[in-house]
Design a protein that fits this description.
Elements (H helix, E strand, L loop, with lengths): L1 H28 L4 E4 L6 E5 L3 E6 L3 E6 L8 H26 L11 H37 L12 E2 L1 H25 L7 H24 L1
Antiparallel strand pairs: 1-2, 1-5, 2-3, 3-4
Helix pairs in contact: 1-2, 1-3, 1-4, 2-3, 3-4
């Protein structure tokens, strides 16, 4: 039962972490962090991401324009770029390390302590990646709410609202955190047994050691 739990936890953890990492990469580049609907022209919608703004028109289609200057961006967008890049990099590194720590991978099968450390390190990286993905989307969402309810802005001025990328980012962060937790649970569970071939080799070594001890006792 412990072996089944360990295997299932490893596979579920690495799968959720992979899904979270893919979603975090999508969140980084999707231009839908904020949406703006114009009441005067319902046929035109605006979207804003970390890298560009887009206008969607039914007749023309979607037209996007990259931001001209990094320093000209609001603080939340500048820091969000850095944090999302950090999240993507840490998630990728976590996938590599935890992948080598899986029991189904035969590389380093005899070094169970090393594989356990790789799983734990991969889980920590996934946690960090999840936090650095949740922080920017939550910050942008908070600033969007603050600007939406800002009484200093006239009511006739259009307000930015939540975009689809924020929800994708929240899911990504949760999947990364959950995947890291499952990998930690798998690493702290009982070790997987060696393969049958390794059992035969181990038994043969024990048998040889016993014979050597008997021969030594006879000589003495």
């Amino acid at each position: 039962m412990a072996l089944v739990f360990r295997t299932v936890a490893q596979l579920a953890g690495i799968s959720l972490s992979l899904l979270g990492w893919v979603l975090s990469c999508l969140t980084n580049y999707l231009p839908h962090w904020k949406n703006l609907n114009l009441e005067l022209n319902e046929m035109e919608n605006w979207t804003m991401g970390l890298w560009q703004t887009c206008v969607i028109q039914e007749e023309v289609g979607t037209q996007c324009k990259d931001f001209d200057s990094f320093l000209a961006l609001p603080a939340e967008l500048r820091i969000s770029r850095i944090l999302m890049f950090l999240s993507n990099g840490l998630g990728f590194l976590g996938l590599l390390l935890s992948g080598f720590g899986l029991d189904c991978l035969k590389i380093g099968e005899r070094r169970q302590d090393l594989k356990k450390r790789l799983l734990i390190l991969g889980g920590v990286l996934f946690w960090t990646s999840g936090i650095t993905a949740l922080a920017p989307v939550s910050w942008v969402a908070y600033m969007t709410v603050q600007e939406f309810w800002d009484e200093a802005v006239p009511e006739i001025v259009p307000r930015w609202e939540f975009g689809e990328a924020l929800f994708v980012g929240w899911f990504a962060g949760c999947f990364l955190l959950l995947g890291g937790c499952l990998l930690h649970c798998a690493a702290c569970s009982s070790r997987a047994p060696l393969a049958s071939g390794h059992y035969a080799v181990a038994e043969m070594r024990d048998h040889c050691q016993k014979l050597e001890m008997k021969s030594t006792n006879l000589k003495t």
